[in-house]
Each structure stands twice: as structure tokens, then as C-alpha cells.
Amino acid sequence: MPRFLARRVLGALVILLIISAITFWLFYAIPRDPAMMSCGKNCTPENLAQIRRNLGIDEPITFQYWHWLVGVFAGRDYGGYGYCDAPCLGYSFANREPVFGTIMDRLPLTLSLAFGAAVVFLIAGIGAGMIAAVKQGKALDKIASSVSLLGSSLQIYFVGYIAMYFLVAKVGVLSQPSYTPITENPAAWFSGLLLPWLVLSIIFTANYTRMTRSQLVEQLSEDYVRTARAKGLSQWNVFFRFAWRGAMGPIVTVFGIDLGTLIGGAIITESVFSLQGIGRLALQSVDQSDLPMLLGVTLLSAGAIVFFNIAVDAVYALIDPRIRLA
Amino acid sequence: MSFSRRNFMIATGVVAASSTVLTACGGSGGGSSSGGDAPKVTGSKTMDIPVGTKADSTGPAPEVAGATKGGTIYSLEQFDMDHLDPAQIYVSTEGAITVPIMRGLTGYKIDEKGGVTLVGDAATDAGTSKDGGKTWSFTLKDGLKWEDGSAVTTDDVRHTFERLFASFITEGPRYVQQWLEGGEKYKGPYDGKSLSSVEVDGKTVTFRLNEPRGDFNYTLAMRGYALVPKKHDTKEKYDKRPFSCGPYKIASRSIGKSLTYTRNPHWDPKTDAIRNNYPDKYVFEFGFQPLAATDRYIADKGNDQYAVPIFNEVAAERIAQVLTNATLKKRVLTQVDTVTYYWPINTTRIKDVKVRQAINWAWPHQQLQTIRGGASTSEIATTILSPVTPGYEKFDLYGTTKKPGGDPAKAKALLKEAGKVGQKLVIAYQQSDNAVKQAVAIKNALEAAGFTVVNKQIDKSTFYTQIGKIDNGYDLFAAGWSPDWPNGYSVFYPCWSGENIGDGRSNYAQLDDTSVNKAINTAATITDSEKANKAWGAVDRQVMELAPVVPDYHSIRNWMYGSKVGNVVYDAGNTCVALCKVYVKK
Fold first, then answer.
1. Sorted alphabetically, which PROSITE patterns does this protein's record hold (chain A) (predicted)?
2. A74 and A115: one domain?
3. Is B468 on the interface with A (CB under 8 A)?
4. Predicted ipTM?
């Protein structure tokens, strides 16, 4: 297992390096001048040149990338704007802050949102999928399938506003969406994020219900399940020891990607509920042409997906020992 | 006062007529209402701000009837402030939000009746002038302290004005820099050199100007000239965390997310005639779209009951609901503004005055007003000066009142007369939903009048940089202006004088007409305010006859607030809600 993980981590670092190079080139090759954002309204050509020098953006792009890469490991000096400690992912001219600090400031909310929603949609989605598979063709299956179809066709911006209007403004059973760090006030953390979790999980729940159902139905019709039944194993044993375990592989894979994507930013959910997480940060960066911040957020998203893929591989290896040999 | 990209984005965005403009100096509460009938721009009281006496400048500020101390005031805003270094502040929201933490030599005092007076803020009075306004002196009050308990000194005042010349100060107003003697060669204090035209003698600071400026004390009331401590000046980094000498100080700040003020224990109310300090704390939260914020103000739950907006006005989607519901309307502060939004015509490209006049005749004012949210948020403009700005003269040269939807036939006839039927017009606008809708309406109207229109979307972050270039390649683009203090000079010199043409300057139309330049310079020297106002009204007409601009609208602003916020009044000095006058209802 350690060798397997080491190999995967090494591969992930190479992937991240390639992603950073491509993203850096794409962002900096487009005709936008980050120095203009820092230079202001009464900008003189001399000031602009000075800012370009301070920020190192008067250099060829390969040098810029090299300096950026060095900054990630050793930090970097941005002249009058201050020193950016390692890991320095760049300096945001719009926020006048190092990119890494801002990302770290917004990340706890996004992690809370992603993991909280994941708990809801995993429990609800897999639970409903299991019931549907067990009760295949019966009323419960039809209800679960119909509800999941309805759920997957809904949009967060629609459900979010409706839910806010009724559950918060009219009936008042839920709190206004907000973020309080869990370390500060766990109850406020929970109540402030409950509505976003529920809304965000609606679509995912529907997908996981459908996926779990189809995987389980497939597994339950496999020969080895039939053999297990023929050997007289209990229904419970057959279901959880054989069918469920077999069905989990694809679900875990998709879950890893979904979680990585969510950590990269649930842009719509954060926007609907006015939460300031990574998604809003990405949106704001696009709006302000804040390329360094956008690069940082892109790398975070890529890193999250890569990380959870490794985690999924590890879990996969636990579920299916054949993976370790591959 | 120019108009930042943020202002434009909001003005043309989802907000009906959100018109956050650069630090305008409005006036004595003209055209404001809270819960009553919606005011109209035309007919509203002109925003005159008289100069107060030494007694007016002496603290403490008048108490607000029924106000009590304590509690927290919240705010749900769309954006964080771009700048908090006063020298970089030229946006009204930035000016308004920094009232509790910054003080200048002069400022605007709001009295019990909502009237506004120019008074000494850190200075004992609104200043004394000599040489017809070429020399101005201000004496610092006793007992002024920074948030660390150290005294505010005249050295700090001198440093405040000298640092305006530093290369990293690029966004704030440029008036004082242009007027101080020797300013053209001065590069700031950081290499150890002083500016000799700022003299310090005991507690008095004297400014020597290169031209008579009777309104210099009004200029200094702009947040761009608030004091900065020499000892704590962190240069570029000061923009993130300024030092306070007001009743509050910054307790925490997460850029783009939140800003919190707590009390500054070293502030003495006896030194301050302008600010009250009722709440214990202010918490500004950013990232709320106007619609989301409006819905929360309507719901009025939890901390939102203690919330008051600075930037977010009632969203266009909710304006009818809010203004037609008597209960909700009670929690709305409606205010006529001094800003005029307009579309400058690039006179270096559209040289024929008849073509420019044809654009004016064809303009679809009414359609654009509907897109903005209707008459409750804006009034169609026919002049450059707002009806509430001193000097305003009512006239309508291009038939807007009779045909607010435009007169394509008249426009076509003018084009024909000029031999320019089919004239190509390149219109630049920012990328936003509302701007796209407006661009379509404008294109249709102008094409119906015989123009060939090419619409070009421009990235919001570089819009003003692009239209501010001399050789920008565009014929028509949106902008807006509100006076920095209540007279025509701060409208016409920055935007319509040929002396202010250049990359990054605010004469976007690049109008350089000898007679207009002369009229502006003549009006600027008139010391009698009544005569000066008449002269500015005449300049307005003179400029409009040349049609270098299409006046679009004057804004009416609607701010909704929580049910437990008391005394929500207008701060004419910053064209926003007066933060230092609100209190938490018990």
C-alpha cells in the first residue's frame, strides 16, 4: 500500500505541475495587463512600468512561470506590496493580498459546505438507492426513481431561492444562510449551513439514488450473488457482504470526483446563499480579471480533484484487493 | 468626480438606479424621504451647503433624539471597498464607510433637521483665506488622537498632503495636487523632501495655492484628503489597513468578505462636531447581490433587523413591491442624487455637431428608463447638471420631454442635412445583463434614425481605462458624474474643459472648444455664488448646444434597512446613508 500511494502522489505532483504550467500560460498569454489594475485611474507610463517591474510581469512568460514556481516553495518579494510567504501562489492586485492567504480564508466555508452536503447526499442518496434496488419494481422503487428524476432536473438557483423564501423568510424554520467557524460556535455553524447543505444535496442525492440503484440491481443479478444465495446465506449477508461491496466501487469513484469538484467551489450555491467561499472567490476573480487569484483557485480545484482521486484509489484498493497489484 | 468601473457596473447592473458615485458633496437633504411619497428630481431642493462658524465646528455632535448607545449595526453589501487609503478614495461608498474612522481638516455636519453645513473637522473651523483664496489656513483642534493614543499633529497634516504626490497614489482626487504651489515638480515626502507650499506654524497649517480657490475648504472635505499619521504610514500597504482618528477603528478585515469596526477609546467626542457614536460595533459583510440583500431586508430576520446598506439599493426586481407596500416603504430611505449619468460622444471622431445632435434627438430615453426600473429610480435628464446641483438651469434642446422615446425623423433629417446618413457609430459598453439590454435599445433607436451601429462589449475591469484613452476607437460610451462639492466647477472643469484632455482624464468626450474653455475659466473666478451659479447654468447650455454628450438620467436612490435601526438619514457629503448618525433601537 505505501508504494502504491507513493506512486500515486508522485504522479499527482507531476499532473499538478503540468496543470499549473498550462494554466499559467493560458492566463498570462491573454491580452490583459494585471499591472493596470494596480496602477489606477491616474496611472502614468512610468508608474505602470515600475509596477510591471515590481511584479515581474515585464519578463518573458517562462521566467515569470519559473519565478512563480520558486515562490510556491520559497516565497517571493512583491516590492512595495510586501513579501509573500511560501507557499506563495501569487499576489492578487485586486485584493492587494497574497493569493494563498485569501484562499485559506475562504476554504473553511467551502470545506464545510462540501463535506456537510456530502454527508446529506450520501446518506439520502445511497439509502434511497438501496431501498429502490431491494424493492425493485415495487411502489417504493417507483417513488424513489421518480423523486430522483425530479431532483436531478431541479436547479440550485431555483430551489435555493424558493427554499429561502419559504423556509427562512415566511415560515422561519431555518436560519439565514451564513457561515460561523465550527470552532467558534458549532450550533451557529450547523444552523447557518443547514439550508445550503440541503439544497446543494438535492441534485447529488438524486444522482446517487439512481446510481446506487442501478449498480445494486446489476450486482444483485450477478452469478456470484446467485451462488451466495444458493449456498443459503442470509439476505442481509448477500446484500451487504457481496452486492453492496461490489456496487460501491463506481460510487466511490464518482464521489471522489464530486467532492473534489465541490471543494473547487460550489459557485451557484455560494452565490445563491451569499456565502463567501472558493466558488464566489473564483467568480469574483473572473469579474475583476484577477488572474493570479484565478490561477490559485484553478490549482486548488485541480489539486482537490487529484487528491480525492488518490483517496478514491486507496479506498478502492481496500474494497478490491486486485487494485494493489495493478 | 469621475466614475469608477464599480460605479458603472452597478449603475448599469441589476440595481435600478444604483448610483454610487465618487465623493460627491451634495447638500442639505434636498429631495429625501423615508416612508413618504417618492421624491422627484425636478423640483427638489438645490443642495446648497453653507460654511459653518467656529461654534458649528465645536464638538460634540448634536444628539439624535431617542438614540441610545450599544448594539451592533450590520450591513449587507455587494462589494468590498477597493481602497481604504484616503488618498486613493474617490468613490462615495468608500467615503461613506470611512466616516467613522477617518477625519479631514473639514467635513460636513448633519444637523437635527437634516441640514448640512461645512465645518472644521480636525480643524477648529472651516478655514480662513487670504489673497482672494490663494492662501488658506487651518488650525488643529486640541485633544485629537490616533487610535494608539498618540496626538494628531500638524506634521501629520503636512505629511497627509505631501504623500498625495507619491507615485503609488493613483486613484484619488487630484485637485489639491494641481493647486498647491510647486506641486508640479514635487514627488512626495518619502525621499525626505518637503513641499514648501504646505507651511506649519504651531497648530496651524497654511496652504499656498497657485490660483485663487474660494472653495478650497470644500475640496478638503473630500475623503481623499483625510488625515494619515506620518508614523504609521505604511505606503502602499496603508490601503489595506488605515489608522483611525475617528470614533471607531478597524478591528478586523477580510478583504472581499467582511470589515468590522469597534470603538476607538482615544477618540474624544468633544473634538468632533460631525460624528455620533451610538453602536458599539459595525459589521460590514460583502458578497450580497442587490436582490439577495433586498430579500433579506424585506424578511427582516435575526441580525438583518440591525442592518443598514451603504452600497446596495433596493433591487430593480423588488422596487415595485417595496415602494407599494406601506409597511416595507417605512423602512426605505429615498434620496434624489446629484449625479447625472450620460453618454459622452467622442468629438475627435464625431466632429460634425449635426451628427451629435442627431444622436441626441434619436436617443431612446424612455426605453432605457424602463430597463433601469422605471421612474421611481431615475428621472430622464436633458442637462449635464442635476436639478439639485447649484447652478442648474432647466432646458431641453433635443425634444426629450416631448418625445422621450426619441424622434428618429428629426434625427434622420439632421443626418441628411449633414450628408451623413448611414454614419457608423461604435458604441462601447460594459459586460453586464442590464448594459446589454440598454445597448440593444440604443442600437435599435439609432439605426431607426439612419445610423449604422456597432456595439462592442468591454471587460468591466478595463472599461474606464479603455474609454479614457485618447485614441480609444469608440464613438459613444456610458459614464456619469456628480460634483465633488456643490458647484459647477467640479463638474465642468474635469469633464468638459479642453485643458483636461489626456489618457486617463475624465473629459471622455475630448471636447476642446475655445469658447467653452473660456466660459469655464471665467465662471471659476466668480466669487459671488449666485452669479457663479448663473454662469455654470449658462456653461451647461453652451456645452449642450455642441452636443458632445447625451444626458441620460438623474438618479433617485432607495435604501432599505432593518426594523431595529434608528435615524437612517442621508449623508449629503458622501451621497450615502450617514453611518455615524444611526443607532440600534432597544
1. ABC_TM1
2. no
3. yes
4. 0.78
